[in-house]
Amino acid sequence: MRTVWQLFITFFNIGAFTLGGGYAMLDMVERAVIDRRHWIEKNEFWDMIAIVQMLPGVFAVNTALYTGYKIKGFWGAIAACLGAIIPSIVIILLIAIFFLDFKDNPVVERIFRGVRPCVVALILSPAIKMFINAKVNWKTAIFPIATVCLIYFFKVSPVYIILITIIGSVGFAFYSQNRLNKSKS
Q1: Which of 13, 17, 89, 113 is deepest in the core (most CB within 10 A)?
Q2: What percent of the chain has pLDDT above 90?
Q3: Which stretch of 23-27, 100-104, 150-154 has the lowest confidence by average pLDDT?
Q4: Measured distance CA(157)–CA(55) in Å, rounded
Q5: What number is the average pLDDT over the span 41-64?
Q6: How far is residue 51's CA from residue 104's CA, in Å, rounded to a whole number?
């Protein structure tokens, strides 16, 4: 039961102090579950991130669910998920209650203007880490470059790219397995 509570507290802290959404929280999650708690190995963490990115739903919630389930099963998933979403719910409620009174306040406008560049950096940092941990090399660099080009220049939906990637990966896995089986025969 202690680990379930630790999952809740860990993800509550991450949820409470993350600006910029799910990708911005990656550094905090990595430090908490790999460096401090040693719940997950680094390679497994980045594999988890790859899986979580392809799932429908909110990235932060999916990350909390996956991590919690991996550590402590069903109750771990519930604890981590609640920990991740409760701060956001409270903050959204407070903003909804008080924001209309302060939205035109010059100090509030300056605060938001100052926070935006920080959010960009918080999202860029894990993007660079993902790039490094994906072990992109000269042979595989074509995939992220083609993906960026398809999405940015040709306005291809990421949904199609994910589906093509899944189909291609499954096809390649079957092809590789068949070659391996034939070579053993």
Answers
A1: 13
A2: 48
A3: 100-104
A4: 15
A5: 89
A6: 41
Q: Where are the domains of the chain?
A: 2-135, 137-185
Q: Which of 40, 20, 31 is nearest to 120 (CA)?
A: 20
**Nearest Cα residue to 60 out of 90, 92, 87, 93:** 87
Using the structure block, give the residue that is written with the tokens 């949820």: 15
Rounded to an integer, the average pLDDT of 101-120 is 83
Residue 126 tokens, joined: 């894990």
Q: Kindly give, in sequence order, each residue whose CB lies less than 8 Å from that of residue 136, ignoring residues fewer than 6 positions away.
A: 143, 144
Give the pLDDT confidence score for residue 128 in this predicted structure.
86
CA dihedral 52, 57, 61, 66 (to 10 degrees): -40
Q: pLDDT digits over 90-103, tens only?
A: 988 888 887 777 77
Given a contact cutoff of 8 angstroms between Cβ atoms, the answer to whether 88 and 64 are in contact is no
Looking up tokens 């068949």, which residue turns up?
178
Q: What tokens does 2 get?
A: 């202690």
Residue spans of alpha helices (H) in 17-157 = 26-30, 42-54, 59-102, 106-133, 142-152
pLDDT average, residue stretch 3-31: 88
